[in-house]
Structure formats: C-alpha cells, structure tokens
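If your schedule permits, I should be very grateful for your opinion on a structural question. I have a record of one protein: its chain in single-letter code and its fold written as discrete structure tokens. Would you kindly read the sequence against the tokens and tell me how you understand this chain to fold? Thank you for your consideration; the sequence and its tokens are set out here.


***
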Amino acid sequence: MDYHKVSKEILQLVGGEENVQSVIHCMTRLRFNLHDNAKADRSRLEQMDGVMGTNISGEQFQIIIGNNVPKVYKALLENSGLSEENTKGASGQKKNVLSALFDVISGVFTPILPAIAGAGMIKGLLALAVTFGWMAETSQVHTILTAIGDGAFYFLPMLLAVSAARKFGSNPYVAAAIAGAILHPDLTALLGSGKSISFIGLPVTAATYSSTVIPILLAIWMTSYVEKWIDRVTPSSLKLIVVPTLTLVIVVPVTLITVGPLGAILGDYLSVGVNYLFDHAGIVAMILLAGTFSLIIMTGMHYALVPIMINNIAQNGHDYILPAMFLANMGQAGASFAVFLKSKNKKFKSLAFTTSITALMGITEPAMYGVNMRLKRPFAAALIGGAAGGAFYGVTGVASYIVGGNAGLPSIPIFIGPTFLYAVIGLVISFAAGTAAAYLIGFEDVQAEGSNETAEKAPEMKVDGEMIHSPIKGEVKALSEVNDSVFSAEIMGKGFAIVPEEGLAVAPVSGIITAVFKTKHAIGITSDRGAEVLIHIGLDTVQLDGRHFDVLVKEGDNVSPGDPLVSFDIEKIKAAGYDVITPVIITNTDQYAVTAVKESGTVKTNEALLALS
C-alpha cells in the first residue's frame, strides 16, 4: 500500500485540510473531527483500496483502515499541515450532550491507550512469570519491572491531565503540574493520615487520587475555564507569570475541596454499580454485553467504556467489561473462519482465513467489515458466538485484572488470576460457537470474477455511441499529467484534462446539470445516455470559494453540447497561485469501454475527445 497516496486521497475526500478540525487514530481507525461532516464523501472513501469502511459516531467521522492505520496517520501528517495537536477552532455543528461526552472521552483516552496497553501487558507477563516460578517476587528485577508496569497506572491522572488539556484547550504542562500536586507524596500522606484537614478554614475531604480517572478529568475541565478567564483579564506583559500561577493556586485547592472528592465518589458509585449488575445478573449481563459488543465496536463507542474499565480495576482490582470484548472478537474470528471453510471462491477464502487470524489477534475490523458483514449471516453468527462465551463467563465469573493490549490472544495475560483457566475455555467456546453458527446458518458465497453466474447477474449498463466533447479551448493532456493523485491515478474515473486558453467551459454532452458546486469551480452533468461527467476547473480551486468564477447554469437545467456552463478568469486564478489545468472525468467509467479520440495537441470546444461504448 502506498500510504502517502492513500493519505492524500483520504484528506481530499473528507473535504480537504480546511475541513479538518482535528484528527487522531486508534488501533484501526482514523478519527476526524470535521467542521462539516457533510463535506466528506463516504461512498468514495469506502471504495478506496485500503479503506474498510466509514462510520459517524457522535459527531466524529471515522475511517476504518485496519492494522496499517498508524502508517496512514503518519503519512497524513507528513502530507499536510495537520499535527497531533491540530485544532483549527470549534466545529460549527451543534452537538448534543451525548455526542459531546463521547467526543471528549474518545479524544482524551485514545492518545494514552498505548501507554496503558504497554504497562498492562508488562503487569500481565510479570504475573505470569511469578505464577510459573520463573521469577521471585523478592528479586530486584521484579521490583523494577513492577515499577514499569505500575507507573502508568499510579500516575494515570498525570497522563490524563495532559491529554485532557489538549482536548479542552488549556496548557498541558500546567495541567500536568495540577496532577503532580494532587499526587505529591506529602499530600498523599496527609490525606491518608486520618486527621481532620483544612485549607484556609475550608475542609479538605480525604481521597486517594493515584490511579483515578474522574477527579482529574473534572479538574482539567474546570482548569480550561479558569485559565482562559485569567488569560483574558491579564495584561500581555504579565501573562507568562500571572496566568499559570493563579491557575495553580485556584484549581488545586478547589480540586481538593470539591471537585476531587466528587469525582472520587462518582468513580466509587460507578464501580459499585457495574459490580452489582454482574454480581446479581451475571449470566444475563454478560450474555447481552458479549453478544452485542461487536455492534458497540462498529459505532466506536467501546472507547467510551475504557474509563469504566480502568476505574473498575483501580477501585476493585478486576473488570467484567473487557472480557466481553474478548468474547465478541473471538466470535468474529470464528465466523470468518467458517467462511474460510465453506467458501468456494479461492480469493475470498484466503481473505476470510487471513482476517480470522487477525481477529484472533484482537483486530476485528477486517473480519467484521471485509467478510462477516459483507455476507450478513456470518455477522449474526459472530454475535451468537460472543453470547455463547458470555453465558460461560457469566456462570464462572471470569474477570480481567489489568487493562492492556488488544482484546486478542496476545493479551491473554490480563486474565491471570483465579479465573484464568475459565477465561481460556470461554474464548474457545466463543470461537467454536461462532464457527459452528456461521457454518450451519450458511451464506451466499461471493462469486469468483469471470464466473458464469456473475456474468449472468451483472447488470448491463453500457450504451452505444456516447461521445464526450471538449468543454474548453486549449491543450489536451492525459490525466496522468495532472498534479493531483486523485485525478492522475484515475481514482474518480477515466477522462482527460485541458490546459485552458479561454476562460469559458461549455457542455461536452447533451444532458442535465446534476451538480453545481457552491464554490463554482466544478460542474456535474449526466448525459442523456447515462454518462456522468465532472468538469473540475483548476486544482485546489475550491479554496478560492467562488472568486474568479461565474456559473451560468443551475442544477436541473437541460444543456446541449456547446451551451455555456462556467466562465472563469484564468489570469486571476493563476495569480492566486492555482493551477488552471481542468480535468474532465467520466465518474461512472466502470460502465463503459473508453476510447480516446484525441490524446494531445490543441483542441477547440465541441471537438470530440472520448468515445464511450
């Protein structure tokens, strides 16, 4: 895969860099906050090689890439002015409370997951080494590795403070200082002493802040308002000293007196509530959660559960939610494996086997989107597999004891504890049940390319004698000469390009105007015989926002070859720094055999350039 090419195409299809408020990535998805989701072309994104699907969760626009998402993300940053801290202002879209909450949770927790996952895996492997007698708990090696594994969890408020500050728009280093203050050893000792504590006469509630989630999130949310207010009223010459000083002096005490204890109480009740649910309705709760977790993953809402998982382990030493995610993934792997066993299409059979292995490793999107959802019935079978394992986990009380890694076989150490053996058995049950259910339910197999059945089912879309004329006077060029990968690689379709000599574009076919872009730089026409023609005047001229263009038609107008469509000022467009080369694309090229009538040289308007048959 050419990651740079893919990243450029993705950026263009989400509406260009100017439409991106921020972008991050998780294990399998690029997660965009766009100024306007409507500008993203979902259908074309989903047809791209390297893209498995798209999803909108809350207001977040997600592009599902799979295992290669870090490389695509890196290329995206390299090929644009975006950065990991990119924020170009708030989106103009109004969000509801639930969407805003999910956006905050996803934005805060996604960046810190690698640290949590790495530390969690070290803790799990260390527990495994002790269990099998490979390492003594009294050894210095064990002490050092324990510190490495516990560090990210003990100082979790500090990681969250930095991430939350970036999300809320406050200074991340001041936020880290706030977290450092509430974790200070002397303060921790004072809060744990059992003595009555006060600050300038106000009572301070004793609470433990290490390994907590909610108190620091509330504190940094409050900080974002306090810091901005102080910054607004402070003279520029004093900002460097006054703003951080007052922010720390105000926020830390208020956190200790009100916000921190409130967060600690909320965290306690949250953990108690989850435990109560699984203690009193364990079987039903686990069946429902494991059986529907794939649906939660589809929406990306599983990241909203991360703080609950971390909080459960911090408060109770175990968690029931992550095991359900493991079972759902095993069900997806099993269903995809059944497709591998039963499919007669060699190419698809290979895909099913590969994605089944990937799902076993904890990355389910390839199996879910590429195989199971594509065939529909195997996806239902995967849900059955997850529910079957959930029933077993509900009976045996399986829990995870750390948060780390993907929900796949490499992360099995998270189960090390009293229910470890049951955990392994449950994973086997989900995989086997998913396989059996998909095999028995069956599916409509993907037909091999070129098979008779495929040929019989393929709709006959071709037409005879469609001729595409030049809409502009100038020099004709091959699309490969256009300095834009979307056009030069013929991603949108085949066609030609014109370097214009005159600033007028006319209709290249008889048909109806189906699209007039607000920025006036592009026109879409559907010919009377079904050809979909796009005339794109210049490269990146969308950024001119209609300046130097004058549209002479409107959507729904009927036109004939030679009818004026758009006038434009070539010299002013060039002076603004834009290339005026104009691609003319047949966007439904796949329905035709395309023959070039003229590939180079000077052309006049209405001169035939492409023949479609």
